[in-house]
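Take a look at the protein record below with the fold in mind.
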Amino acid sequence: YEYSLPLTASPFKFASWMGGDRDGNPNVTPNVTREVCLTNRIKAAELLEKDIREIMGSLSGNPPRGMDDTCRFESAAMQRIRDRVGMDSRAPYRSFLHPVAERLANTSAWARAELLKVQKGGVSDEGSLFSTEDIFLDKAELMEDLITVHESLCDTGNAVAADGRLVDVIRKVSAFGLTLVPLDVRQESDRHSEALDCITRYLGLGSYLQWDEAARVNWITNQLQSKRPLIRSGAWNESDEIFTPTAVDTLETFKMISEQYDASLGAYVISQCTSASDIMAVLLLQRDAGVKKPLRVVPLFETLDDLNGAAATMDQLFNIPAYVGSLEGRKQEVMIGYSDSAKDAGRLAATWAQYEKQLELVDVAKKHSVDMTFFHGKGGTVGRGGNPNTFNGIVEHAPGTVNGQFRVTEQGEMINQNFGYSDRAERTLDIYTAAVLAEQHTDRPLPNQEWKNVMDKLSDISCDAYRKIVRGDERFVPYFRAATPELELSKLNIGSRPAKRKATGGVESLRAIPWIFAWTQTRLNLPTWLGVGEAINQVLASEDEQTLRQMYNEWGSFRTTIDLVEMILSKSDSSIARHYEDVLVSDPAAVDLGSEIRKIHDGTEQAIKNLTGHKILAENDHLLLQLMAVRNPYVDCLNVLQAETLKRLRANENSDEEQVLNDALLTTITGVANGMGNTG
C-alpha cells in the first residue's frame, strides 16, 4: 500500500483486570496480582522467543558482497549488526538474533523462578541467578534490536523479507510488549479511606473518616506537596489494634504496586467514587508506597448521584495544582459505570445521565486544558450498557466525547463471541476502527433545550417508577429471590467473583451481572424496561407528545436507546415469567407483585409500539424475528425444566440429590443464556 501505519504504531491497546480487580473480591490478594503479572511475562517471553527463532530460520543468508568481500550497500543498521556478530559471520541476522532469543528464554526462566518465589512465600533464590543484562524487562530494548534488523534488511535490498514475519513480530511487541496485557488494579473508595483513617490514627492526627471533605482534600494536598513519607513500610503489621485486616490488605496492595516492573500494571480504577478526596487518596497512597511511576488514577462514577456530581468533582480536582501536576501529559481518564447506574436508577434515567454528564465532563476538561478519555464500563447485555450493533453504539455516543480514542470493557461471553476466533477478532477490530473514525466525521446535532427538557422529564418519571418497585416495595426482594435463580447463582461456580460486594444487604449490594443474569433466565428482563413505559405514556399524554415523536425520528442517540429496549422486550416473555411464579412463589404478597409487574411489562410493550409506530416489536429486525422463531421453542422447554429444577433444589437442600440437581440447573442456565444470546 502507498500509505501504512508507522512500524511501531499500535492503534489497539489491550489490558485486563483479571487478577487486578479486587473490588468486593477478597480472593484477589497482592500475591495473586504478583502471580498474574509474572505469568503474563512468562507467556509473553515464550511466545516472542518462538517468533524470534522462526525469523532466525528464515533469515539465514548474507547481504550481497562485492569483489573485495565487503557489503555492496552502505547501511548504519548493517554496521551495528556487524559490530555485534563480527565481519566474518556468514549468517549475520541469525547470529544477531540468537542472543535475543536466548535472552527471552532467560526472561521466561527468571519469571518462573520469581513466580515460584511468590508461591513459596519468598523462599526461592533461583531468580537471582539472572542479572538484568540477561533478561528483557523493557520492551524498548527488544524493539531496538528488531528495528535494527528491519532497517538493515531494507537498506541491503531485502525489503520483502523485512516486511514479512519480522514486521508481524514488531507489531506484536508494540501492541503487547513483554507483559501481554498490563493489569488494571481496581478497588472501592471506602477501602482507601479506611487505610488513611488507620494511618492518621496511628500518627495521632485523629480519624480521617470523621473529617469533612474539605479537611480531607486539604490534608492530602499538603501531604502530596511534602516529601516526607507518611508511614514506614510494614508498620501496619506491627499495630493490630489500629490497622484492620482490610486496611493491611490495601496497604500491602500499594506495596506490591511499587515492586512491579514497567508496563506490568496500567491504571488504578476507583469504584464507588464520589468525591475529589477519593481520587487524591489513591495518588497519596501510591506516592507513600514509593511507586516510581504512579499508575494513572481513574475514577469510576457508577450511581446516578455519582454521575450527577462527576463534573463538579473533576472541576475541583483540576483546580488543585498538586493533582494536575501528577497528570502525565495532562491526560485524565474517567470511567463511566453503565451497569450499576442502570441498576440504581433504571435504564432510561441512567442512559440520559451518562450522555449528559459526559458532555459536562468534556466541558470541564476543556476549561482546564486537560485531554480526557472515557473508559466505558459496559457489559454484553443492553441492561449493562451493551449494544449488539457495536458500530452504531460507538457512533451514537455524545458528540465530542470520543475524539479518536475509545476505551471499553469486553466481558464474559462477549470475549469469546468477539475475539474467540481469529476471523471474529479481526472483524471486531475492523468495526471498532471504522466506528471510531466514522464518529469523528458524522454530523450529530446536540439535543436542543426542548429535547433536554423532555429527556429530564422522561428520566425523572422512569427513575421514580423504577425505584418505586425495586427500592420502595417491600414485596420486591422476596419476589425477586423466589421467582428467579438469584440465590442459586451465587452458589454455582460460574462467576469471576462473589455475587455481592458485601455479604449482607439486598439488591443494592448485588453485583450488576447476577442482577441482570437472574432476570434474563426467567425471560422477564425487568432491569432493561422497568420505568420506560410509564415515562413514555405520560409524555405522550402531555403537550410534549410531538416533541417526543420528533426526538425518536431525528435524534439518533435517543432512537438507539428506545430501539434497544424494544429489542429486549421482543426477546422477553411474560408468560414464561408467570410459570416461574406459579412453580416457585408461595407468598401471596409476592404473587400479587408478580402480577403487577407483568402488567407493567405488557403496558411497556404497548408504549414502545405507540412511540415507534410498529405493529409488532422489532418488526424491522427480520433476522432477530427469524432467530427467535427457531430458538424459542427450545428455550421454552429449558425454562420449564429450570423452574422444576429450582423447585426440587429448594426442597432438597443438603440431600443426596443436590449435586445432580445443581448440574441440571447449570445445564439449563447455559442453554437459556445461549438461547437468549447473552448472559449478563
